[in-house]
Amino acid sequence: MKVTTLSLAKRVEELLKLKRTMLSRLESRLSRREIEVAKKDHHARRKPRPCGMTIHTGIGCNLGCLYCYVPDMGFPLKPSPYPLSGEQLVYALLFNPYFVPGPQGTLLAFGSVTEPFLRETKERAIEYLKYAHEYLGNPQQLSTKATLSDDELDRFAKNVDPNINILVTIVTLRYAKILEPNAPSPEERIVFAEKLAKRSINVTLFMRPIIPGITDKEAENILAKAREHGIRSVVLGSLRVTPGILRRLEASGIVDINEIKRRLPRAPRSSRDQVTVMENDLKERIARIARRLGLHVLPSSCSANVWSHRLWCYACKWGPCGDLSNAIEVSVDDIVAAAEILGCDKPRVNIKKWLVGLRCKRITRRPDVIAVWLETLIRRSVRVLTY
Ligand code: SF4
After folding, report:
1. 43-328: which CATH number, 3.20.20.70, 3.20.20.80, 3.40.50.720, 3.30.200.20?
2. Mutate to test the pocket of ligand 1, among 305, 316, 353, 372 (most ligand atoms within 8 A of CB)
3. What is the pLDDT of residue 3?
4. From CA 136, how far away is CA 102, in angstroms rounded?
5. What are 94-104's pLDDT values in tens digits?
């Protein structure tokens, strides 16, 4: 889609108006108490990263995967549904100054600090997907290593964004019982992925975290199985470790902990400090196998979201992602007009390839809010300063 000077500025204007209209519509449906709770929720404040906004469908997780950082972040092991209703979640997002509604707005990622399809949380997850789709229409992705029954899948398919990308996690076939003791088996997940694919729901193999010595050795098998069952794309992701994860992996007796430590750029400094294991060589090797088997290799989960919604993005170093023919063309005049509406006085714009620098004489909104809005709408990295 090509955007003219007028249309980028006009879109900003219309989206700001839309947010106000929808907030007041929801205010007539929610009680005063429900509104207060939604306003205080972190979905109403959190700044999305270029890769989008994570939506918490629950709190805690009981799958007990040994490589998981959720317990180290202080979340409980007993899961419960997230306390907001679907309408409250939508209200919280609309109230968030960084959030851009609409099909080309903020990317939404469901299931980051919990498994969305746990028995205890799946109804809430389906509710959130449905409300976010109906009210907002933003691009959705969800990552899972659980499954849904056929009835649940029917309900799910009827209510969600038809272009949603479901990332199904598999990191081992052989050691799943040890590494992911309470999760459905990888075979069950692959069957679930096949059911999604048969319903024309975009499904991606999520090979994250790559556990050195395990995932890389099994990669060919996992990828071949995924391909056989209708999966056409894969996201490869690195292992992140805390001291707790290192201890748990070592205690499993199946992981070469020295190899993981050898790949660490530094040791974790505290119990919550997550350090990414350096795995570029493993990723490249696995990507080569994936391509040979006919799978499309995507650099990240947000890239899967962008891809399945036929968007385009170059907002971070992993890009460009998606379909180049859908790249949004922007000029200095486009940005100037949109920046003025966003509260930037006398904008000066500098565009260098995919980086946009914006300087404002005065600003009536927070600079990072202006940056996030522009970044979301033009899908490039934007820096805002004053002069
Ligand atoms: S360029 Fe790709 S990886 Fe980076 S934020 Fe955009 S979609 Fe995500």
Report:
1. 3.20.20.70
2. 316
3. 42
4. 5
5. 999 999 999 99
